[in-house]
Design brief:
mainly beta, Jelly Rolls, globular
């Protein structure tokens, strides 16, 4: 087997730490892929901050990410997006979406108990807000 440059990595739920991230009403649990892959990938669990009222944040606004790969997998709750050329999509537990690089999208709403897994490549990327 060839050398991959990927290090062994674990992330146990009992040790989970959630931190602030891109969206103010969400918190993020890093799963260690950034370090394990030398920044080529990131995987984190996103959830609505406990006790946070996000109802006034009905939308993230139209935006796109400058990256090579983005996938979400809903673990709990639901989330609704609109995608350029695809329309509105609502995702619930067990649903998955691969968002093509640069696709214009907007989070419209989500449940208070939302938890989802997001995987991106590269780990660090730019988010470009767009005018409505």
């Amino acid at each position: 087997m060839s050398q991959t440059g990927i290090r062994f990595c674990t992330s146990f739920a009992r040790d989970a730490v959630y931190e602030p991230g891109l969206r103010a009403f969400l918190e993020y649990r890093d799963l260690g892929l950034r370090e394990a892959t030398g920044g080529r990938f990131r995987a984190h669990v996103l959830r609505v901050k406990r006790g946070e009222d996000h109802s006034s944040l009905h939308t993230t606004g139209l935006h796109r990410h400058q990256l090579d790969f983005q996938m979400i997998f809903v673990l709990k709750g639901w989330i609704r997006f609109t995608y350029e050329g695809q329309g509105e999509k609502t995702f619930g537990p067990g649903d998955c979406c691969v968002q093509p690089p640069g696709i214009v999208h907007n989070e419209l709403d989500c449940s208070d108990d939302l938890e989802l897994l997001e995987i991106t490549s590269p780990a660090e990327f730019r988010t470009e807000p767009l005018a409505p």
